[in-house]
Every structure is written in structure tokens, then in C-alpha cells.
Specification:
Four copies of one chain form a homotetramer. By secondary structure, chain A is an alpha/beta fold. Helix content of chain A is 42%, strand content 24%.
């Protein structure tokens, strides 16, 4: 394990996660008859693009999830501000969205809370559940630090994109993503998501470089693909993610597999 | 295996597949310094939305792939018409795209041809490779029938969405998608892609209901998730996909796990 | 009058014009209470962008008109193809559109026919009138040549943009646009529309360079602004407009006030 | 003059206006040859849609102006926040934008200041002027109240849209808009802009109901079109505009030609 410039420290983390769900979407897609698939793809991708732009305003990170269920890490938002996104959707799209927000020490706990709050408000396919904003009433104002790991495949262009069939490249990267996401979820209560190309972003709370090293090793063992990761930490996903990107640039420049800028959590 | 209304027949298939690649994208995303992640997400999702709309004009199906590498099945297009999409991208976005097109009996062969043509024109990160349209010179005019399988998870809302943490639902569906895609690729030279919610679309050439049954069984064995599939066939992905969606509605209505409308390929 | 390279010839013209109307839009904008103005601006601009892209597929020209009533000149379209745009709108937006199509020797006659057909189908604010496509039953297949005049203000950057208050520049150009449009409508049954910057596009049927010279002179007399115009002619607005743009480049290069490429109509 | 519920009071106003200019746009549209017109229309409309959404975040109002020169009234923004819009444009579009911001007692003065600051930074067609943000260094933090008049044509659907040719309706409304805008600019240093349908929005500083009545009378005398206006006042364009819309609803309900909610300026 080659790690540069890591400063080890433990902090208490609190992370805010939002779950966005298109209301009654399944039934809508087949009413009065199945809607044209490319129109659905257009709608879903546009909605995610808009959601990413909205979340960006608050220095958060959004992930497309299953498209009809999108996820965001947005520490510095007043949960009531999600009403603005609900209004935008209502005035731009033929669908509406409900939103659950959770706050917890780990991303998965926070997302669980968000999921439960939304589920308590009604089924995703309940035609009467419209534009719910389930933020609870005990929402503390302050969140803590978030740790972001920005992963990619070592020399993906030379080893895969310029050499292999696009489908096999895709499958390889998707398998690596899935193994990474499942590992981080099981071991560290963290979320990881594919973000395009060969990039995977992990949203973590309080894990150190050894954990990232273990994760990379796990993916290598399961899939044969070698990942590298830049690690960042900050009060928002954007702040942490920006550091992580810069750290990943250092991986590319130095050949280190793990690189962190700034103050990172220590291993246990 | 419960299968309704399938008419068995073998046909020769020829499928046109296009591979769209953002030119020199990796370097662009970090020049002069790493660009803001949510801006990249916005760009990628918008580009895919536009690509889906373009492909829809020709009754094709587009998949976001890795976002910087997108894939489409578009039988009824003159490959030169892709120039129109290249022009649109050039005039709408800060990036440009190169496109390779292949024609073959199976989706994977066609995509291989498209990949090779594009790779022959230069690396995806070659700053001098811009707006290549690699369609070869031996392109026959006619394509054949395409078979589409539209899969989803049996009772996903009741069993997963309304019950589980959104991250675990996502992981389960992503694992099912990956197992299905890898199986169809290995066994039947076919492509499968996640299209949102719990939906997976398989683009196949000449496979019959037994193959789909085997695929569903494979996914159940590997992941525990039970899929159902509507099967359609037609001269374009859209025509076949529309049938497949209607057939999937029949699965939902009747409890059949496999349903096909119209003339479907027979098993060997 | 300095005119270069004009070849004079008279032809019979037939022009297809479409009028797109958002269904029941006024009431929608204030139900249940006035919707947020910037959301309406976003919706209208997005809808026009999509309409322009749709019309471009058929080599037509689209104008935003009053945004809730948009206009397009699309010679080479099967009027039934407008259903595709109606479907796109239905699946992308919270509103739907009705469309009237007319075919006549002049743009204004064609638009009148389109307007009347739409009006015959019900009021723009009739909540029951949804997604009408009023194309008549006597629609001939073939259209003729269309003449496009692409106007701009001589040295607008030097004389206005870099010198004056943006509001006064806007007012001056809007006044010139209005005088030009009113003149072309009254004298030549033609349509003119502002297209951004200092550009105005006239869609005309069968008028020659003297008519354009008269129009420019009229604008100068009424507003003091000096316009120049490139003239083009072709089977579609796009073909004619491309010529007109190239001709306008020649105006800029040579100082000529009127320039035409290709075969243009003669004066009477 | 029928005016309801107006409360008269004079306040000192300070208004922030921003001028957005696409950098070097004219040359770009014709390099290396004239770009396709519908692509330019798409680009301009998309850029305005995005700008409207951006400005909405700060409760401002944006107007498309000449599309390559857009205008916004955004009282409650830190001028440095416009950098965020510049970044979005850079990462979404093939063009970049420069922005000038002015602060003054009237909209026209503020726009003049914005224009001058931008002009001082270089010509709109200077290829070296890129992404200027000209906000000056003496920018006070606080702005005052803004008065918004939201105008429309009395019974436009019954008298025009459902009766007349779309081109003549457009010309009539554009002439009314121009006369109104020119009058408000000359008499009250105010800005008015067409916002779609038959709606015109006036951004004013410190004018009372008599001024609006005079403006309506001026338009009637010049064009024969009868306007009505709802008047609102607030610390932001959005707050004032929302009141104005509600007041306009009262005009529609009561037949009053002028209606104001809340605290409005008195006449001199």
C-alpha cells in the first residue's frame, strides 16, 4: 500500500441523505399503454440531470440510482428547500416526485431513515401519494464531515477501452462497481455508485486508508480489475469530492494506488 | 415454464449497432483542473437524453453504457445519418463525439465491429481524433429482425421498494442485471442493459423462449431475484420492444414468467 | 441598390406552415395559483428548443412566435409526422400541444389555413381540446421553393452593442424587426421573425431583390437602422436559409446591402 | 381608472441588474461556416432556460433580451455568485458568457452601469474577452424594493387567438409590447419585456398607479390594444412579480384594468 500525505484523525460524522422517488411511476409508464421506451429514457436522464444541478447548488452529490429512485448526499441544505425541486419537477415534467430525507452517522443509516420515512408516507405506486416531503420533525441543523473516495480503473483506456469490445469493458467495470459497492455497504455502511467512464464514487463516513486499501484488494480478488482511489474529506460531498479528485490525479501522476489530500480519518 | 402465444420460427438476423464515444473526454474532465462532478453528471445525462431522442427518430434503442461510451441498436438508419448527431453535439455541448457502426448477425458481433472500427481510427484519448464516423465501406443496406426481451422483477414494489433500504434494493437489482447481462453475452452473444426502476432490456438476435427461461433461472440461482420477461420481435428495436412491453404486461396480468407476442424465434 | 450574383426566375411556390399551440395553457399557468414566472420561462424556452430540434429533422425553420403559439415552415414533412412531436411533448412536459398545418402559395396564407383549422377544432382555452392535429384531408404531397431573407444590422457590434445601453439596443432592434415584419406581411404576404442578436429571418414565397431593397429602405426610413440581407432559395427553409446565410456573409465581406446566391426570384 | 386596494407609499429603491453576453458569439456562429440555424435556436433557447432557472434560485427575473444578450433583475444575489452560472455554461455549452452587473435607483440606470462595465472589459466580439465578471468594487450589499407590473391583453383568446391569423396576433402583441417598453423606458427609466402569450412584464422602481394607467392609455392610443396590469412590490422581482400576478387575476375577475396587492408606491 502506497499512501501519500495522509493526516490521520477521527471525527464524528453526520450525513444527510435524500431519496427522490417518482410518484406512481410504474403505472404511469404503461398508461394508457406502454410509453415509448426512448421517451422514458429521455425523461429519466433529464430528470437526473436537473436533480444533479439542483443538488450542486448545495454542494451535494447526486446519484441516478435506479432513475425512478435517485439518491443525494447533501449536508448543507435546509431539508425544506427540497420543496423547490418538487416545484421545478411539477412545472417541467409530466410526473411529480416525493422525497425522504434522513440524517445519521453513516450514509446507509441516513438512507435507511430516508427510505423509511418515505415508505411510511405510502407506497411508491400509491396513486394518492403525491409530492410527499418526509423530513421528520427532529432534524438537527448541523452535519459533520463526509469522506469521499473517487475510484477509477488503472489505465482503463490502454488496457480496456482501446482494446476490448465495448460490451466487455462495460461488464468488467460494472462488476467491479458492484463488488466495490457491496463491500463498502457491508463492511463500512457506505454507498458507492458508478458515475461514468470507469469512475466510481464512494460516500463514506469515518473510514481510513486501510479500509480503502482493503476495498481495492477485494475488487482485485473478485474481478481481476485494479482500481486506484483518491480520498478527500470535507463538510460537503462537493468539498470532499474535489479533494478526492485532486488526490486521484496524484495517483495517476505518481503510480500510488491510494492518495489523500488534507485531513483524513485514521484507521482503527 | 409458462409461455403463452409463442409462434416459433427461425430467421436470419442482421443487427446494426452504434458505439458513441466522447472524444478525449477523460483529459477534458480534468483540464485545467478536475471539473465539478455534478456538472459532469449533468453533461453526461443530457448527452444521453439527446442521444436517446436521436435514436428514437430511427426507431432504435439507445443505452447509456458508460455514459462516455454509449450504445445503440438502430437497424433502420443510413449510417451516414449519424453525422447529424455529431453536428448536434458539436453545436450544443463543449465536447464532440466519434461514432463507430457495425453490422452483424448478433448484437455482440456488431458491437465488436463498431468498437474495432473506432479503435482503428485512434485512441479514445487521442486529442487529435475528433468526430470520427467509422462506418466502413461494405455496409449492406438491409438489416433483419431483432428480438427484444424486456425483463423486470416480479412484484418489485411490494417485495423491495416499499420494504427495503434504497441502497439494498439498488444493489439487488444491479446484481440481477449484471448476472443477466453476463449470461446473455456469454451464452447468446446478446446485450442486456439496465433501463431504470427494475427494468432490464435484452437485445438478442435469434434466441427462443427456452433461452429466456434459462436466463431467468440463472439469475434466480445466482441472486435469488425472480425476473419475468416479455419477448417481442420486429425489424427495429422499437417495434420489437413495443411488443415486448405488451407481452410483459401480460406477464403481470397472468402470472406467466415469460410471454411473447407475435412471431418469435424457436428454440434450437 | 448593390446586388451581386442574382439570377432571376419566377417559380410557383407552395409552402407548408405549422402552428403549434399549447393546450389550455393560460388556465394552466394560474392553476391552482399563478405558477412561478421563471418556471414558465424555463418551460416555454425548453419547449421551443425541442420544437426547433424536431423541425430541424425535416429541414424546416421554427420560430418561437408567442411561445405558447409557435410557428414552423416545414415543406418536406408528412403532416402526420407531427404526431411524433405531440407524443414527445406529452412524455416530456406537463402540458400538451395541438397543431394546425396549412399549405398555400404564401407563408401568410398557409399560416392562415393552419390557424383556421386549429380554431375550427376548438378554443385554445377549451379544456377539452387536447392534442388536436388539424391537417385537413386535401393535403397535396408536394411543396415548392421557399425564399429566405436573412437580415442583420450593419455593424451592430461597433455601432450598438459595444456603445449603447443594452435596453436601448434591444428596443432599436425590436423596432426594426417589427417594422420589417409588418412591411413584409402587408406587402408580400411573408413572415419575418427575430432570431437572436441582430438577426431577423424572413420567410417569403416569390419576391425578388427589389422587394428586399424596398423592405430595407422602409426600415431605414421608419427607424434609422440600416439592415443588410442575404437571400437564398431552395426546396426547404433550411436549404434556402443556408444560402441566405452564406449570402449575408458576402454582404459583410463586400459591403453590399443585398446579396443572393443561387437561383433567386425576379422582380415583377 | 379603476384601481383596487392600493396602498400608497414612497420608498427609496435600489435595483441590481445583470447583463449576460455570449462571448464572441457572432464570429462563432459563422465559423468555420454558418452554423445550422435550428442548432443556434436550440442553443439560445436552452441557454436562456438555464439562465432563468439560475436566476430563479435568487428570486430574480430573467428576460431573454436578444438571446446573445440576456438581462436579469436579481436583487438578492452576491454578484460573485454569477461565477457559478459562468461555470455551468462553460461545462454545458460550446460557448462561454461574460457578465456585467450594475446597481442603481432605476432599472435602466442599473442596466447602463452593467453595460458600461462589460463594454469597458472589451468588445462583445473580442476573441480574447472570455468569461469576464464585471461587478465593480463599490457594490453595496443592500438593494431596495422593486415594483413589477404584469400586463396582458384583455380577453386575448376571445378577441385574437381564436379569431385571427397567428401572424397578425403576434404582430399586434409585439407592437403593443414595443410601445409599452419604449414608453416605460422613456418616461420612467423602466424595463419591459415580452414573456410569452400576451404577457408583458415591466420592472420598475418607484412609480405609482397613475403611471401604469398612463402607460396603458399610451398603448391603446398607439395600437388600439387594451392592456390590463397587476402591480406588485417586494424586495425581489419574484416577490413583487408574484403579487403582480395575483393582482392581474383580480383584474380578470373584476374587470378592473389596474390592480395592486400590498404596499404600492404613490403617484407624485
Amino acid at each position: 500500500m502506497i499512501i501519500n500525505r495522509l493526516i490521520f484523525a477521527r471525527v464524528t460524522t453526520t450525513i444527510r441523505v435524500a431519496l427522490i422517488q417518482i410518484d406512481d411511476y410504474g403505472p404511469w409508464t404503461v398508461t394508457p399503454e406502454p410509453r415509448r421506451e426512448m421517451d422514458l429514457q429521455y425523461l429519466q436522464a433529464s430528470l437526473f440531470a436537473d436533480f444533479a444541478a439542483f443538488v450542486d447548488t448545495y454542494d451535494g452529490y447526486a446519484f441516478y440510482g435506479r432513475f425512478d429512485n435517485m439518491v443525494a448526499v447533501v449536508n448543507e441544505i435546509d431539508p425544506a428547500d427540497f420543496e423547490r425541486f418538487q416545484r421545478q419537477v411539477r412545472n417541467r415534467y409530466p410526473v411529480t416526485v416525493s422525497i425522504g430525507v434522513g440524517l445519521a452517522e453513516t450514509p446507509v443509516e441516513a438512507l435507511s431513515e430516508a427510505s423509511e420515512r418515505l415508505q411510511a408516507a405510502g407506497s411508491a405506486q400509491d396513486g394518492n401519494r403525491r409530492e410527499v416531503l418526509a423530513i421528520g420533525d427532529d432534524e438537527p441543523d448541523d452535519t459533520g464531515m463526509v469522506t469521499v473516495g473517487h475510484f477509477d480503473v488503472v489505465d482503463v483506456t490502454g488496457s480496456l477501452t482501446d482494446r476490448e469490445n465495448a460490451i466487455d469493458v462495460s461488464l468488467a467495470i460494472r462488476r467491479a462497481t458492484l463488488e466495490l459497492a457491496a463491500y463498502l455497504r457491508a463492511e463500512y455502511d457506505s454507498i458507492a455508485h458508478f458515475v461514468g467512464g470507469d469512475n466510481i464514487i464512494g460516500i463514506c463516513s469515518d473510514i481510513g486508508p486501510q479500509a480503502f486499501d482493503d476495498a481495492i484488494e477485494h475488487v482485485r480478488a473478485e474481478t481481476g480489475l485494479e482500481l486506484q482511489v483518491g480520498i478527500g474529506r470535507g463538510p460537503t460531498a462537493q468539498a470532499a469530492g474535489e479533494q478526492a479528485k485532486e488526490a486521484l490525479e496524484q495517483c495517476r501522476a505518481t503510480g500510488a494506488r491510494i492518495h489523500g489530500d488534507g485531513q483524513l480519518p485514521a484507521d482503527d
